[in-house]
Amino acid sequence: MITTDVENYPGFAKGIEGPDLMMQFRQQAERFGTEFLEEWINTVELQERPFTLHTDNKVIKAETLIIASGASAKWLGIPGEAKTPHGFGGNGVSACATCDGPLPAFRNKRLVVVGGGDTAMEEATFLTRYASRVYVVHRRDKLRASKIMQEKAFRNEKIEFIWNASVTEILGTPEHGVTGVRIKNPDDGEHFTLDCEGVFIAIGHKPNTDLFKGQIDMDSVGYLKTNGHSTATNIPGVFACGDVQDSVYRQAVTAAGTGCMSAIDAERFLDHLPVEMPSGEGVTMEGEHITPDHQLIITATGEIIPNEPAPE
User: What's the domain range around 267?
Assistant: First the structure.
């Protein structure tokens, strides 16, 4: 977890460290009998229920599936960017301004934002609420952000742009965190050092959904599509929550909220599945009978209808 201190999760007036919050989540789930299987899912088969999930050592069957695999920030891959102790991730380097920007470590400090799209402009503008100065480093001579986001950033007196430049290294010490960045001009290859106390990488996020390509509907970036006000995907019985389907808010509290929604959606889905009888028939909680060959449904009023998906 990149965010060390979580300041905006409800119920923790003095904030809480990210790993501690995650441990409390786990302990709370354990109290209600949740079983944890720590395995890496390699492939999934979602064409029919029960769904099949394959790990290195196991085959898991499930009548319903909640996908909460999240999204990963895109990184530059430069020295000093990795998580502590190998770099300054969590000690001056972040990929979420709204998560970490209000922390005391960044208040009244000089901060660097790397990127040129809407995310970078939004992060830079947000950080001006707390920083003394925000430097936006972009590798081109113009932004990719929408016009309205560009104008908002250009009007902000706290934001300074460094064009045609790339951050090649993040500098600092374990005791003081980030102290500066090395910047390269790709045209002439010249380097210079910019003093700062924080670096925010804002070049986008990638949802962790490669596992589900070709089976679940997703947008052009890879975020899973959910149906209206529910967390249902295009596959009945498969639900998605958190950052894996949220490209806008990306906060711990909103992820927890959609996680609750997915749990309720999954529970209701299971409640409406037919219970198989000794005769081979299935009986639903509404009193419908499904024939042993699954071809017909006999409603509670005696009406016989084909067991076919509803037309889209």
Answer: 37-70+220-271
